[in-house]
Amino acid sequence: MLNMGKSDRTLRVIGAIILAVLAATGVLTGTLATVAWIVAAVLLLTSLIGFCPAYKLIGLDTRKKG
């Protein structure tokens, strides 16, 4: 049921870290910081489990076959 490849998962973790750092350091504030925390959590969670519901909806699979 996994639909995310290794590079996709790595990029999501990096994106989550960047967003979390921006929100934690005050570069992003208010509603934007809240959105950044939520997006970072979703990116991290989907990369950890290797499954993206949005990919499933559009039929995308970034895993290497074979």
Description of the structure:
The protein has one domain (6-58). The protein contains 3 helices and no strands. The protein has helices spanning 6-24, 30-49, 53-58. The longest helix has 20 residues, at 30-49. The protein starts with 5 loop residues before the first helix and ends in an 8-residue tail after the last helix. The mean pLDDT is 96.
What's the structural blueprint in terms of helices and strands?
Elements: H1 6-24, H2 30-49, H3 53-58
Please give the domain count. Answer: 1
Radius of gyration: 13 Å
How many β-strand stretches? 0
Order of helices and strands: HHH
Shape: elongated
Poorly predicted segments: none
Count of runs of 4 or more consecutive helical residues: 3
The residue fraction in helices comes out at: 55-70%
Features:
66 residues, mainly alpha, transmembrane helix, transmembrane, YgaP-like_TM
Quick recap:
This protein has three helices and no strands.
